[in-house]
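Saturday, quiet lab. Running sequence design on the structure tokens for the scaffold JK sent over.
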């Protein structure tokens, strides 16, 4: 494991052209400095129209097509996300094309276990292609770097996750939160469309009992329509019945909605004191980072490396284990202590500059 030195110095005026996959993702956008910089990231091509920019639409990533990589004008190829549906054979062909043309390949290992896949085998096979083929590896936490070295014998540069929420929204959310007085303590559980790594029924009874015992607190459960609507494509009858029954008893609030826009999501997270992550497996979390941007305390499971990303509260939970007492203690502590675990704007601004420089340093070393 290697941890990159994050330092300040002037950017080289010679710009490198990098294919970052996908460049439209907020994580990739915030690896660039707020102004200027020596790296030009190609815009995601439009699916079905590989010679036209995609704008905000980047799925599926055209840059993962070996034929696109064979003819693209770039100095370096950096893969982050988007290869979920790629076959190991297709990824192997992509890495061979990059090697044939002499284009350095960087891979940031965000997920050691895909949170959308019940069966880990496909993701394991994809990593078995990508990690050995990469000219350089990056990951977000020391624990993930240690796991990569133990499994593949590869040393990995550790660079933390940048801010997710834009800086003006961070500033506004912090100001609004400072004016809160005499309001119920709000605990949020967001279930989205029930990804494979979510098991809400494991933790909901403990959350309901704990929040009810706090007296001045509200438990809010958000979920997408496809899970809770009677005709939803992914309707979960057990979950729907439980939530509606507990809502009738006044033990929680249920909010059913379509996918939030970014601004709707930031408004929702800003309204919470605590966001509980209901994961049974995983590696890292952008949701956790967004909460830290908005000064919302995160209660995260002990699976994966969430605790290494930044300050949060933890409860014991993984694919086979759940400790209700640890979840109860984390919620009570958040209520009693109101810990300040978020990242400040100054911290995020400095971190973004340092991350941009660290990535440019890596790119220049590989293309020298």
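Result came back. Writing it out in full:
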């Amino acid at each position: 494991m290697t941890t990159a030195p994050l330092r300040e110095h002037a950017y080289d005026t010679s710009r490198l052209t990098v294919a970052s996959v996908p460049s439209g993702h907020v994580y990739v956008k915030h690896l660039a400095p707020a102004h200027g910089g020596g790296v030009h990231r190609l815009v995601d091509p439009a699916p079905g129209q590989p010679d036209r920019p995609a704008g905000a639409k980047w799925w599926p990533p055209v840059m993962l097509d070996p034929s696109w990589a064979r003819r693209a004008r770039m100095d370096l190829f950096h893969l982050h996300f988007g290869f979920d549906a790629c076959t190991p054979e297709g990824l192997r062909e992509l890495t061979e094309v990059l090697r044939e043309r002499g284009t350095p390949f960087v891979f940031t290992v965000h997920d050691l276990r895909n949170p959308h896949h019940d069966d880990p085998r496909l993701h394991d096979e994809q990593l078995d292609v990508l990690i050995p083929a990469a000219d350089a590896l990056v990951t977000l936490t020391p624990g993930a770097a240690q796991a990569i070295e133990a499994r593949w014998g590869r040393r990995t540069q550790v660079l933390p996750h940048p801010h997710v929420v834009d800086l003006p929204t961070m500033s506004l959310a912090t100001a609004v939160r400072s004016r809160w007085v005499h309001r119920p303590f709000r605990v949020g559980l967001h279930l989205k469309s029930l990804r494979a790594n979510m098991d809400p029924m494991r933790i909901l009874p403990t959350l309901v009992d704990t929040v009810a015992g706090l007296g001045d607190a509200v438990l809010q459960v958000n979920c997408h329509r496809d899970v809770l609507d009677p005709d939803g494509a992914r309707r979960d009858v057990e979950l729907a019945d439980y939530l509606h029954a507990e809502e009738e008893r006044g033990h929680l609030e249920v909010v059913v909605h379509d996918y939030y826009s970014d601004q709707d999501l930031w408004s929702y997270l800003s309204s919470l004191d605590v966001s509980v992550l209901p994961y049974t497996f995983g590696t890292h979390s952008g949701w956790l980072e967004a909460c830290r941007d908005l000064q919302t305390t995160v209660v995260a499971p002990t699976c994966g490396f969430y605790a290494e990303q930044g300050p949060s509260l933890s409860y014991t939970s993984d694919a086979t284990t759940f400790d209700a007492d640890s979840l109860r203690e984390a919620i009570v502590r958040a209520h009693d202590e109101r810990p300040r675990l978020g990242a400040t704007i100054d911290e995020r601004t400095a971190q973004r500059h340092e991350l941009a420089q660290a990535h440019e340093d890596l790119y220049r070393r590989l293309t020298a």
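Notes for JK: Residues 2-162+348-367 form a domain with the Rossmann fold fold (CATH 3.40.50). The CA atoms of residues 224 and 257 lie 5 Å apart. Ask whether to fix the surface positions before the next round.
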